[in-house]
Fold this sequence. Notes:
alpha/beta, two-stranded antiparallel ribbon
Amino acid sequence: MRSYRAISVLVTGVALGSGLAHAEVRQATPAEVRGWQTKGTAVVLVDCRHPEAFVEKHLTDAINVPTWQMRTANLPRDTRLVRYCGGEGCGESVGAK
């Protein structure tokens, strides 16, 4: 499985229409995400890659919402959305390799 140095973490605020209002976007390490999961914090892993790449391999419990569908996806509100993609050049997981 691919390793990630940092992944984009979107902590949702209030979803409004096709966008998110009051959202905090920041970087998190995989260890930080695992820590949230260990503590029982609600985290949704969102694989933003193409569906074919998701079918081939993805993180356990991740859902697939390609980048172009993020604005219209029915994602939970007030939950940490951990977005990741294929690596360098992808805006969904800055710093991934």
